[in-house]
Amino acid sequence: MKNRNLITVCILAILLTSEAFAQISEDAKRSDYNQNKPEREEWFRDAGLGMMLHWSLDSQLGMVISHSIVGSSKDYRDRYYKELPKTFNPTKFDASEIARIARMSGMKYVVLTTKHHSGFCLWDTKTTDFNIMNTPYGKDIVKAFVDAVRAQGLAVGFYYSPEDWLFVDKQGALVKRVDRDKISKSFRKAYDKYMVDQLTELLTNYGKIDMMFLDGGHWPPAKKACWSLQPDIIITRGAMESPEQTVADVVMDHPWEAAITINNQWQYKPSQKFIKEGRKLIEILIESRAKGGNLVLNLGPKPSGELDIDEEEPLRELAAWMFVNQEAIYNVRPWIVSHEDNIWFTKAKDENTVYVHLTGHKSWERGDRKEFVLKSVKATKKTKIEVVGHDGLVVEYQPDKDPKSYAVQKGDGLHLSVIRAQRIYNNNFWPNAVVVKLTNVEPVYKVPEFTTLEAEKKNDKVYFLGKVNDLKAFEEVQVRFDYRVYPGFHESIYYKDWESTHWMALDKAEEFRVVMESLVKDKEYEFRVVLQTKYGKLYGNINKVRP
């Protein structure tokens, strides 16, 4: 059977590198082309959390990965391609240690940058000399990575950039992001073959690969090669929504993945660090899962190959939280709403069980009891409550404290009385989310359907537009717009402050608008619909406009 499989793979490889590959199906020409198997997408959604490693030879300079090449002089590029390989010697690279840290942190998969846009390959490739074998290190990093990740029982993922600026440079073209549809047929044919040859190596030489993250534009042949060579592979970026340095605006009940760095740069950055605290990583994970998505957290190994301790330390806090609360992250789907203020929800995939993530407290002292009211969750006669990770039987060294938590349905909502009893830190304080498990519960209402539309510019005025498509059982709702100056690519995940327009009452499904006369020209704004029901506020998707 093994020989038969090997023959099949070899035949596929021959086919993919032949002229026949140029005949891309009409479906494959679409940017939304997706042949991920539904059962594999379900596996991916169940996994929830992964690690990504951005690492290449320019980590030696502590600079942005690859992008310094664009706009650089010929002398710079020549030294980049010829000199950097001579000094890249990551002798402290320990794939087994990285895989152990990933597993300990609750990751279910690990993704390695096999090749970024510069074209430097971390594997023993026959397609270019610009690879790890032609460095003082001289060993196949991809092989060591794959073996180590598999040994920890984790899924193996490859990041691969179809874009390759060394290849572009050798063609005599301007080094920049390439629009595949706008280059000559001969250039595109050579580019596609080079890319497919590399993917064929990656997907035939290292056994089963679970995931592929295709970064750097729309390259249909790359997706076709992946699914042809390994039909069970999951393509994330390239086949599903993959927000970068932010989380999806709204709940989406289909696969998506947020790719977010622990530092404020993808690759190792020894200066100007802005490391996210463990608490922030936990909150990003909770929000991603509450909105139906996965989170892949990125680390940038040092030039020596070891992890940066400043990035590793927040993972230890995430690890502690995941060790306690993992059942609220794995195998979950969105609740009817993602959150009520600072309370976030996930739902067990095939059960009437809701996990209530209580965030927003600066610290919750062990033995303290706090009260909460849920508007979207309704108890039944069979409802039970527990704090995830705790048995509800004892508060250590505090025998006078009632260790149980309680859920009581009242007219204004489901009242929770929750005690934090488990000792995690020696000082008894815990700054991170406490998770409550509610079994046999029901939703209180059906969520109205609404959306934020594109802004309209007319006669030097800007109009924010929104639409309520279905009020469901509500006779009336209130709507408004939240807006703010767009804080920037990396910063938006930190800024929570919005300005608001006035409320408007709607008693039927219809479009609505507000003229915005106070917006400053040449600034970019983002805006969203906010819908108020008697149970609380709901938030729509975010759009942008520049007056």
Write the layout of secondary structure elements.
Blueprint: H1 2-16, H2 38-47, E1 49-53, H3 74-87, H4 95-104, E2 109-115, H5 141-151, E3 155-160, H6 165-170, H7 185-204, E4 211-214, H8 220-229, E5 234-235, E6 257-261, H9 278-290, E7 294-299, H10 309-325, E8 332-333, E9 339-340, E10 343-348, E11 353-358, E12 369-374, E13 377-387, E14 406-410, E15 413-419, E16 434-443, E17 449-452, E18 456-458, E19 461-470, E20 477-485, E21 499-500, E22 504-506, E23 511-516, E24 525-533, E25 536-545
Helix pairs in contact: 1-7, 4-5, 7-8, 9-10
What does this structure look like?
It is a single chain. This protein has 547 residues and is of the alpha+beta class. The chain has helices at 2-16, 38-47, 74-87, 95-104, 141-151, 165-170, 185-204, 220-229, 278-290, 309-325; strands spanning 49-53, 109-115, 155-160, 211-214, 234-235, 257-261, 294-299, 332-333, 339-340, 343-348, 353-358, 369-374, 377-387, 406-410, 413-419, 434-443, 449-452, 456-458, 461-470, 477-485, 499-500, 504-506, 511-516, 525-533, 536-545. The strands form five sheets. It has a seven-stranded parallel β-sheet, with helices on both faces. Strands 8, 9, 10, 11, 13 and 16 form a six-stranded antiparallel β-sheet that branches. Strands 20, 21, 22, 24 and 25 form a five-stranded antiparallel β-sheet that branches. It is globular, with a radius of gyration of 26 Å. The model is unreliable at 1-30 (pLDDT under 50).
